[in-house]
TrEMBL record:
<dbReference type="InterPro" id="IPR042185">
    <property type="entry name" value="Serpin_sf_2"/>
</dbReference>
<dbReference type="GO" id="GO:0061044">
    <property type="term" value="P:negative regulation of vascular wound healing"/>
</dbReference>
<dbReference type="GO" id="GO:0004867">
    <property type="term" value="F:serine-type endopeptidase inhibitor activity"/>
</dbReference>
<keyword id="KW-0732">Signal</keyword>
<dbReference type="InterPro" id="IPR036186">
    <property type="entry name" value="Serpin_sf"/>
</dbReference>
<comment type="similarity">
    <text>Belongs to the serpin family.</text>
</comment>
<comment type="subunit">
    <text>Forms a heterodimer with TMPRSS7. Interacts with VTN. Binds LRP1B; binding is followed by internalization and degradation. Interacts with PPP1CB. In complex with PLAU/uPA, interacts with PLAUR/uPAR. Interacts with SORL1 and LRP1, either alone or in complex with PLAU; these interactions are abolished in the presence of LRPAP1/RAP. The ternary complex composed of PLAUR-PLAU-PAI1 also interacts with SORL1. Interacts with PLAT/tPA. Also interacts with SORL1, when complexed to PLAT/tPA.</text>
</comment>
<dbReference type="GO" id="GO:0010757">
    <property type="term" value="P:negative regulation of plasminogen activation"/>
</dbReference>
<protein>
    <recommendedName>
        <fullName>Plasminogen activator inhibitor 1</fullName>
    </recommendedName>
</protein>
<dbReference type="InterPro" id="IPR000215">
    <property type="entry name" value="Serpin_fam"/>
</dbReference>
<feature type="domain" description="Serpin">
    <location>
        <begin position="29"/>
        <end position="388"/>
    </location>
</feature>
<feature type="signal peptide">
    <location>
        <begin position="1"/>
        <end position="18"/>
    </location>
</feature>
<dbReference type="InterPro" id="IPR023795">
    <property type="entry name" value="Serpin_CS"/>
</dbReference>
<dbReference type="GO" id="GO:0005615">
    <property type="term" value="C:extracellular space"/>
</dbReference>
<dbReference type="Pfam" id="PF00079">
    <property type="entry name" value="Serpin"/>
</dbReference>
<dbReference type="InterPro" id="IPR042178">
    <property type="entry name" value="Serpin_sf_1"/>
</dbReference>
<dbReference type="InterPro" id="IPR023796">
    <property type="entry name" value="Serpin_dom"/>
</dbReference>
Amino acid sequence: MHSVCLALTLAMCGTGLCNLLEKQADFGLRVFSEEARSSPGKNLVLSPYGITSVLGMAQIGAYGTTLETLTSRMGYSLQKRGMPRQQRMLHRDLSSEEGVELASGVMVDRKLLLEKSFRRGLAKAFQAMPHQLDFKQSDVARRVINSWVSDHTAGTIHQFLPDGVITERTRLVLLSAMHFHGMWKKPFDLKLTQERLFHGANGTTVPVPMMTITQQFNYGEFVTADGVDYDVIEVPYEGDSLSMLLVSPFEKDMPLSALTVELTSRKVHEWRQEMRKINKQLSLPRFSIDSELDLKSVLGKLGLGDIFSQSKADFSRITTEEPLCVSKFLQRVKIEVNEEGTKGSAATAAIIYSRMAIEELTLDHPFFFLIQHKTTGAVLFVGQINQPQEH
């Protein structure tokens, strides 16, 4: 069995939503490609829709160069006329699918006064109303948020935010939650599942339960710009509006990075255009993945570092009471694929802090020091501390 790159894709696109959907998919796939590049040889799953939903809420509260950065990097702005409605329609169309549950949430410190335009934008685009919390009671606030996530992921993600993420500096938490349960259009026969060897990216082999089915699939063979041959096969879910695309290089020792580097919504569209119905026997390993990601570094590499900057971030459309910046951008995704179908859950959060709080500086690692006469500049002493000692 070839190494497998997994992409859950939507086979629906209303005319008014195509551009927004394409831009969101493109950005989410860029995040995946960058994260995959940072995690070669490791299992990885993330939710592009969850990422763009939370960043979309941040867009609504952004201003100045922060808004310009978000807009240019993501390719669209939810502050533009008509865009909140398109976002709401996309959310509605996805939520109407059998087996798909979506929710957006905004947890705000009870003492923070939000701008009316931010409240209105959240309601228009995401049908989300702010819920007040006391972030000074950080453990209570964290339990409330984790309970909200658990409720909206069918109980599959129940300890999303770890201890210490919520502090007195927290002012808002922007949330997106998703649960998906899709049954294969034609389930795999459990009796045909056999233990076979899976060839890992590092050259190792490991026995796995391999599911097998023979039927007509949409299938195509493709070549990357660098000459890497690969194939794409589509496995539909019940209802045919959702499907799984399985993408794998012909050569077992070819790294997946050779394929993910050109992963875009346009490329996915090309696959769909060129795939043809063909009888195939598909062998697919039964698998489950649980990814916990802090996407701050990856988003920084994609040009969004300013939203995390204490000096540059501008979220004054959220509130004018105090300056804010994003502290963490977290995502937890669980997915399980078996003979019956696929279960997947995703929770995404942007933790937004006040920039006015006093930052702690702890010298709990080696440092050096100088004692200087300020008037003359004479240095009286200079030293370094690698291991503090008292006498």
